[in-house]
């Protein structure tokens, strides 16, 4: 049987991996063994942090709503409880946006 050289596939795989490690420091961008580990680890962090980003953003919205609520003479928990009691279906993301970008509209929501 004739010998099969897999040079093109090997180079293609290597090039694809090294393309993913662009911008990494030291051997992580050029050495195959270190680069493959770095790419796997980066993928794990990226997957985990896409989930974590949602938690962090909700916390940020709560902080913004609380700060704006206190400027209007109430607290976050009282504001949310009143909104639920009055069936106002504004979520925390919208409330935080109102608090940051349209404070007068947020004040009207609090007064209502």
Tally of contiguous helical segments? 5
CATH class: Mainly Alpha
The total strand number stands at: 0
- Write the CATH fold name: c-terminal domain of poly(a) binding protein
CATH superfamily: Ribosomal protein L20, C-terminal domain
Low-confidence stretches: none
What CATH architecture label applies?
Orthogonal Bundle
Q: Approximately how much beta-strand content do the residues carry?
A: under 5%
Separation, N- and C-terminal Cα atoms: 84 Å
The Rg value, from CA coordinates, equals: 26 Å
* Biggest beta sheet summary: none
Give me the strand/helix succession. HHHHH
Provide the structure class.
mainly alpha
- Roughly what percent helix? over 70%
Rough shape? rod-shaped
Report mean pLDDT, rounded to a whole number. Answer: 94
Total tally of structural domains: 1
In short:
With 112 residues, the chain is mostly helical. The protein is built from 5 helices and no strands. The N and C termini lie far apart (84 Å).
Describe the 3D structure.
- With 112 residues, this protein is an all-alpha fold.
- The chain has a single domain (7-111), classed as Orthogonal Bundle (c-terminal domain of poly(a) binding protein).
- It contains 5 helices and no strands.
- The protein has helices at 7-20, 32-71, 76-85, 92-101, 103-111.
- Helix 2 packs across helix 4 (92-101) and helix 4 (92-101) crosses helix 5 (103-111).
- It is rod-shaped.
- The mean pLDDT is 94.
């Amino acid at each position: 049987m004739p010998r099969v050289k897999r040079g093109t596939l090997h180079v293609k795989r290597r090039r694809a991996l090294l393309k993913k490690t662009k911008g990494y420091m030291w051997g992580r961008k050029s050495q195959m063994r270190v680069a493959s580990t770095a790419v796997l680890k980066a993928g794990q962090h990226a997957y985990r942090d896409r989930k974590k980003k949602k938690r962090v953003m909700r916390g940020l919205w709560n902080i913004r709503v609380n700060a704006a609520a206190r400027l209007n003479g109430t607290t976050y928990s009282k504001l949310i409880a009143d909104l639920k009691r009055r069936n106002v279906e504004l979520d925390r993301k919208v409330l935080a946006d109102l608090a940051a970008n349209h404070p007068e509209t947020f004040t009207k929501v609090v007064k209502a």
